[in-house]
Amino acid sequence: MQHTLRQVFRSGKFIVGFSILMTILLIVIIYPWVVRHPPLQIIGQGTFFPPGIYVNVYDAIHAPTLYTLNLEDAAANRIGNKLRQEDRVAMKEWLVAFGVPEDEIDIDDTEKLLALWEANYNPDLRLPGMTFARHRYFQRVNASIDGLLSTEPAIIAAPNSETGALEQKALIRQTDYANVDEVANVRILALGTDNFGRDVLTQLVAATAVSLVIGLVAGLIATTIGLTLGLLAGYIGGLVDDVLMFFTNLFTVIPTFVLLILISFSIGQDKRGAITIAMVIGFTSWVWTARAVRSQVLSLRNRDHVNLSKLSGHSVPRIILVDILPYIASYVVMAFILQVSSGILAEAGLSILGLGPRTTETPTLGLMMNWAMIYQAHILGKWWAYLPVLVTIALVSFSMNLMNTGLDQVFNPALRD
Amino acid sequence: MKHRFNLLMILLMIAGMVLAACGGGATPAPAQQPAQEQPAPQQQPAQPTEAPTEAAPTEAAAPVSADALPRKETLYYNGFQWGPVVGWNPYSNSNNNGMAIAQQDSARVTMFETPYLYNMLDGKQYPLLADGDWSWNEDRTEITFKIKPAARWSDGTPVTAEDVAYTWATHVKYETAIGAANRDYIETIEAVDPQTVVIKAKLDENGRAVNPLIVQAYLSTNYVVQKAWTQKLEERSGGDPTKLLADPAEDVVYSGPYGKFFADDTKVVLVRNDNYWGQDPSMWGKLPAPKYLAHVIFKDNAAGTTALAAGEVDVSQQFNSNVQDLWEKQNLPISTYLPDPPYHIGASLPTAFYNLKAHGLDQVCIRKAIAIAVDYPAIIANAMTNQSATFEQVPRSLMNPTPFEQAMYNREAVKHLQWVGNDIEGAKKLLDECGVVDTDGDGWREYNGQKLSYVATCPNGWSDWQAAIEIVAAAGKQIGIDITTNFPEWSVYQTVVTKSDTPLPPGYEIFMMWSAGAGPTQPWGRIRNLLSSEWIGLPSNWSGNWGQYSNPEVDELLKLIPHETDEAKLKEMYTRLVEIYLTDVPSFTLMYRPQNFHTVNESVWTNFPHQGDGTNPPVPPLNLTDGWSIAGLYNLTLVEP
Question: What is the architecture, at CATH level 2, of domain A2-43+195-411?
Fold first, then answer.
């Protein structure tokens, strides 16, 4: 046993696959200890907030100390943030169309440009030939550059509780900075939010855990059924073999995924929990394991040590367990790994069709993909809602397949180098 | 088979290349040329009224294939048509023909026409086939209107009063859906002379019309079909109603500006009838701008949105999530009717109904507590991606957000009842006060010793509704009422919810359904659907009040309103209804939803209806096809003529 393990861990492919899987597992286990937010809590009012650090503006204003930093490019950044180069070009276009001589307009001189704009722009005027979309674009530009060059501090005011009149409470100067560490509320959304306004990263970790469990349960069930049937059919033979193989062949010709869809659909949404789905997947994907195990057993059952056992009067279960199972164990382990990986993929496939576990009680990778697609994340370029999910699914199944190949090289003499 | 497939692929590719070549230059054109006022294509000297003689619409004359429509003469749509067209039969309601046939509050008048056009923005009916306004007689039992002398069928014959009368007679005789829906309210429709139509209302025991509102609405919701063609149809179906309704009616005669050009399982194209009677000065005075109206049949919303973003669709009638990204982030020449959220004019009120027979939900305080605890801003921001007015902008009532309906009730009088949601503390207090508290310390409240535990539900796959229902369930948990969600398939859901002759089964304590949009009988029709007890006991109830609410005062008011003509009295009655609704909370509105989504891409066409576009009467954002919105087709111009 020790020897086998040592051999296994000498395979480069296995080690790479194993470490990827373990890293994912570790993250899945440790992350919830560090970040204790409920994964399905709706925190964002709005959809698909981009990844980043979210600083509470109210708390930032009320930070214990505001530091003064005189940074040279602060004003330029401020302007650049609101007024992009293409906006400047567009403003020139509008002004020219309106009748301002072209040589009077210098789009690099922000001050002059804004002065010209302020003097001439009329938000209600739709120039001839201009589309509504363009008209509204200029209205947006106009709103965004309002007060852009102001150097006045912003005033924080609160209504007087008696008179209701606004009273100045504080001034925020343009050189005021708050240290993020001192702001009471800062939330890191490393992968932004999804369509429900939920933290994608936290959800992704929880979903990976659920998907791994689904894969594990499905893999266990499929392997157990396949192994049992294969062993019995292969060793006992005769009528038992015929009957078992009849059923196995029956299942082989039915496309598994179609069967899976039909069963999931008929279970009904209210009863589709993560474990139920895992069981459905397990019960529909044992076929190939059974066939492969059977053929292996067929070649084993006439070996000398098996015959010896028979002559010694050992019982059938004992022969199967002691004399046959250990010889196909390596194959079974490999089959199991593949079953787990395909179980995870099957769940994702089902959930994308809307037939996965019931929504929003347990997160799964497939459900995250499903909702991202319903809310058109892929069209609107909200990559954080679906790409990390895809990468996770790919990594999990890649690592497992890699482990499988590694094992194969160790156990299969024909492949050993 | 394979050969044909290859051929199709090649054709498609060629079409694609042609389209790409045409579309290449159509990038958002900034206004570079100053003021080059071009006169609208309006020069046709007033056509002689008898003009269109036998010259039937010459479709064959157009040397254009449906695979390569000239881009600058075609207006492309999405969101109307899913799956292939079944037929062109205006008597049937299973044509699956989104571009041509929809007899509804704002009827689709591209191919068939109604006597009047409803405008959801001002709530008025404008004459189309009709000449001038209609009028009631003294007792409000008969409506009289004239048919425009210029109105012609596509075969050149005039539209007459006889056609209107015969259309109704056919609806009744063959028991069409329209006949069934109006039979209890309309006695007969008669042609007094070729130009004059009289609609006689059914009378109640007091000699008054049973429901004058529904009679009025008939004028703008139902098409006029040619008598001669109808007789042909009857002849070939041998008087068999099933056959008549199943007839695909490829040879149908129509009066609208467009007719069939092409239809298969990939697209539907309508072509303009250049002899359309509406170019007569008594109607539009010109032809609509696009020669073709085309609708590619997309696989799903995502495919439709991609096409819209690519400029292959000009008018989009589908839910594009985060629609503002298309112009704010992607800088595309795309816009909606309003520049800012909610982007569209809300018209219907998707509503959560309570099963009033469920344990605890017979108590007003529990119903109200759940309703005021719900986080509506989250529903609107997340489920609808802000494409709904908020309840701060349009306080809750029974009215939709159109200005016309908002003016129908006294907002000040019910202000104290209009909640905006997210009021967890208020809800808890309400429950504590009426004695619904947690007695056994398990964290959930009990009523009469039994834990309050409900299932909130809506059909599976209806994504914005599902998201909304999730948020309702979350509110319950915060106030100590255990609400879980469940999403059955639509086929199951609809049979359960519409069965109003028995109490609803467990699992349907809180469920979501729609309410009526904007139309000539609104807001009365919507309120009737939401609150009238006349729907209780129906084995198949598609109208409303699925929670089985019953209040004699409401029923009485609903009976009175259709007969009331005094605006002040009407307002008083509507205000009372709103007051009852917000006090009793038999159901509650979760969001506002537009009648139609209406998003336009101005790569090729411009001058679509927008808020403040200067049209008078205002053209509603109904995709330039429905009701008065068709007027928008006459205003369109090319971005680059």
Answer: Orthogonal Bundle (1.10)
